[in-house]
Amino acid sequence: MKRHFPTLAVGGACAVLVALVLFTFQVRQTEVAVVTTFGRFSRALAEPGLYGRWFWPVQKIYKFDNRLQNFERKFEQTTTADARNLMVTVFVGWRVADARLFLERFPNGDLNRAAQSLEGLVRDAKNGVIGRHRFSELVSTNRARLGLRLIEQEMLDLIQPRAATNYGVAVDLLGVKQLGLPESITSKVFDRMKAERQRLVKQFQSEGEAEAIRIRSEADRRRQELLASAEAEALVIRGQGEAEAAKSFAVFERQPDLAVFLLDLKALANSLKDRSTLVLDPQTPPFTLLRGASIPTQTLADRTPPPDARIAGTTNAAPGLSAR
User: 236 FRET partner, CA 20 to 30 A, in 6, 78, 175, 266?
Assistant: First the structure.
């Protein structure tokens, strides 16, 4: 008995493996499964794990990949609400949501046939939705006028219930991959875009010129205000000066000899500023002030006479006045 034990163990293990193969199956994380009994639906399994079954041909297992599938529509022409022709490519991301309905609609769960069926839904939704929108909502230089996101959402909302009801498919995303123009109207569209750009250029130039005029007007107004303020201040200062001068003139009117003396003294000081030689009549004002006066050690201009300055005839008997 002991000699046959390894053989029995191996045989038992093989029997267990065969039983597992015949009576169990595994559903992976990325799969959904449908179990049929004698060709009729029995159950659908969406959770991963190990499940039991009857061996074939009693029960048969169909497994479908439930990861996101992707396909793109062809670059086809469609028409907008304002009768403009436009080339559009749409991409779709979908997955198996109802495994039973998917198996019933597509024998053996053929993913390619499912994509072909969805292609018809996408084409109808694209033509229907874009046909309700204007060309400027799809192609425009003004970002505020673009409605591409809204158009994509409208197509997605239109496809999702139809795909789920008819094919057991969940459409998770839809987008416009590429936009184009037929060659016959491309040049016209470019001309319109250029014209719109030129319009924007002129608009910006006009706004700039208006702003420049405003700035210049503001500067001129400010300059006028400053000049007026300065002129008013100058008038006040001149008035104050004239008031002070009036006070001095009032003194001079009472003492005219003092006024004459001060004017002569000022003229004498100005005439002796520079180094010069003067030959004058002693009766010439203002040098008449020097008659009968001794020569001071400093001039009236800066109290420091030039080294070579000499004054002659400083007495009443002097016949003339000479300064060098």
Answer: 266
Answer whether 64's CB lies under 8 Å from 146's CB: no
Q: Does the pLDDT at position 123 exceed 50?
A: yes
Nearest to 267 by CA among 244, 293, 291, 290: 290
Domain assignment present for residue 13? The answer is yes
Answer whether 49's CB lies under 8 Å from 14's CB. Answer: no
Number of H helices, E strands in the chain: 6, 12
Q: How many domains does the chain have?
A: 3
d(CA 39, CA 59): 8
- pLDDT, tens digit, for every residue of 48-90? 767 766 667 777 878 888 888 888 877 888 888 888 888 888 8
Tokens 């003067």 belong to residue: 278
167 exposure class (CB count in 10 Å sphere: 0-12, 13-18, 19+): buried
User: Measuring CA to CA, how many Å separate 165 from each of 43, 101, 128, 156?
Assistant: 19, 9, 20, 14
Domain of residue 128, residue span: 69-181
How far is residue 147's CA from residue 143's CA, in Å, rounded to a whole number?
9
pLDDT band of residue 223 (cuts 50, 70, 90) is very high
